[in-house]
Amino acid sequence: MKCFYCLQDKPPNKYKKREHVIPQCLGRFSPDNLILYNCVCDECNQFFGDKLEIFLGRDSYESIERKKHGIEPKKPLKNKRRVKSKIIDGEWKGAIVEEAKADKPGEIGISYPIQAGFYNKFMNEYIYYEPKDIPSAEQLEKEGYDLKTAKMFADESELPQLIEILKNKGINISTKNDLIQPNPPVGSVLVESEVIIDRTIARALSKIAFNYLAYVAGSKIVLRDEFNGIRQFIRFDEGDLKKYFSVNVSPILHDNQKIQKFNTQITQGHLINVEWHKDAIVSKVSPFNSYTYAVLLCSNYNGIWYPIKSGHYFDLTTREVSKQILV
Ligand SMILES: [Zn+2]
After folding, report:
1. Interior/surface letters 122-137, b for 16+ CB within 10 angstroms, e for the rest
2. Gap from CA of 32 to ligand 1 centroid (Å)
């Protein structure tokens, strides 16, 4: 029994964990999330969960989308660094926000991490910094900041710590008069997010694509040498990301008009497909039918051609999986 990620021969007792094509951080579906049996070893399965999927599920564009659908992680991730969001309008313009559980389905809640905002005379607005990003007083003054007052987001227990950090930067906010502790806005706010799709996120999404090919074509096929590039990229972080992974390609629905006609309600779910492009095999993955990512699984297949064209839709409303016939 050979694992198609690490290529090691291992005994059957090393294949006890379930390898899902769609990771459960993107929801649980009926009858299942498409399961691969006896072809991804427990060590690789564990590695993917700990090193890739945790970040796809909790520190990515998809982690914001999952909140909208009420798919809450058991624990949020500390030290998120791939999503930066801020309020872009009104009294709290510039304040840093993080996604949080929403009150209603379809909405995204927000929370306020500890931060200090200083008024910038040149820009005529407050700019906010999380403790780890606060520049020195000297730097801030050079850039036109007024350091006499600060707007803080911190609760009672966190405030002394924040004041201490500011002090270490040469910013002396000591009296209560120097602080403005804004009450967070109520109701809806307009938020702008900057999302980084790095190698970790690209590999997590590529794994969905490669797993899907294994599910559709069988695990023997994906053991072939032509797939060594994508395999090494996903499992061992090797190779050029751009060679394998593209962001924001044309949507799957655009490619496959028949799906669109077949079911006009396909908007609230994940879409995935795989097909030939001459000798290459390409899979598109579109979590939440939002961004669409393309993964080049192999560019020069040398074996005997056989049909692999396939697509699946994971409905987030009914939580059911359906296989679609593609044209
Ligand atoms: Zn393995």
Report:
1. eeeebbbbebeebbeb
2. 22
The first and second tokens of residue 60, run together, are 């990515």
Average pLDDT over residues 233-248: 96
Which amino acid, residue 235? R
Residue 183 contacts by C-beta under 8 Å, 6 or more apart in sequence? none
Task: Report CA(64)–ligand 1 centroid distance (Å).
Answer: 30
Q: How far is the CA of 188 from the centre of ligand 1 (A)?
A: 46
Cβ(98)–Cβ(189) under 8 Å?
no
CA 172/CA 111 separation, integer angstroms: 27
Measured distance CA(189)–CA(99) in Å, rounded: 12
Question: What is the spatial distance between Cα 204 and Cα 39, in angstroms, rounded to a whole number?
Answer: 18
Interval between CA 232 and ligand 1 midpoint (Å): 11
Measure 298 CA to ligand 1 centroid, in angstroms.
20
CA 76 to chain centre: 13
What is the distance in A from the centroid of ligand 1 to the CA of 45?
Answer: 7
Question: Residue 249 contacts by C-beta under 8 Å, 6 or more apart in sequence?
Answer: 284, 292, 293, 294
Average pLDDT on 233-243 reads 98
Res 262: pLDDT? 54
In 251-305, at which residue ranges do the beta strands (DSSP E only) sit? 269-277, 280-286, 293-298
Place of tokens 């309020």: 87
Q: What sign results for the dihedral spanned by CA atoms 5, 33, 324, 261?
A: negative
Ligand 1 centroid – CA 4 distance (Å):
7
Centre of ligand 1 from the C-alpha of residue 5, in Å: 5
Q: How confident is the model at residue 107 (pLDDT cuts 50, 70, 90)?
A: confident
- Look at residue 325 in the predicted model and tell me its pLDDT: 54
